[in-house]
């Protein structure tokens, strides 16, 4: 399920003036701060990710928090554990000596 996400912003300085522009996507550091550690899952949900960027802007983190809540809530909790007692055990048949022919020849 794709979600609508606003694009990330990037800040840079040029001659003492801070310039804010639209970025390609969110950085891995911003995704990890929100709780999304899997980049592939974030991309599958429609969040653009810029793997080359390392910066962490609080504006981008605030935009991601609302979206991350919906993604994390959709995950299924893994509460069921497999018990070894519940598994059916397969009994191996042991070969009987009556049906088994001897490999040695009698002299």
Distinctive features:
single chain, 107 residues, alpha+beta, two-stranded antiparallel sheet
Structure, explained:
There is one protein chain. By secondary structure, the chain is an alpha+beta fold. It is built from 3 helices and 2 strands. It has a domain at 9-74. Helix 1 crosses helix 3. The relative contact order is 0.17.
Please identify the oligomeric state: single chain
Strand content: 5-15%
- Biggest sheet statistics: 2 strands, antiparallel
Helix tally equals 3
Pattern of helices and strands: EEHHH
Radius of gyration from the alpha-carbon trace, in angstroms: 29 Å
Helix content, binned percent: 25-40%
Span of the ends, CA to CA:
78 Å
What general outline do the C-alpha atoms trace?
Answer: elongated
Strand order of the largest sheet: 1-2
Q: Kindly state the mean pLDDT as a whole number?
A: 81
Number of strands: 2
Low-confidence stretches: none
């Amino acid at each position: 399920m794709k979600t609508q996400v606003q694009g990330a912003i990037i800040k840079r300085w040029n001659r003492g003036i801070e310039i804010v522009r639209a970025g390609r996507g969110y950085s891995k550091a911003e995704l990890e701060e929100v709780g999304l550690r899997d980049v592939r899952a974030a991309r599958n949900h429609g969040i653009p990710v810029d793997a080359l960027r390392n910066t962490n802007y609080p504006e981008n983190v605030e935009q991601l928090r609302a979206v991350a809540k919906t993604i994390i809530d959709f995950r299924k909790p893994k509460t069921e554990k497999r018990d070894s007692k519940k598994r059916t055990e397969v009994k191996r048949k042991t070969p009987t000596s009556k049906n088994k022919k001897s490999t040695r020849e009698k002299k």
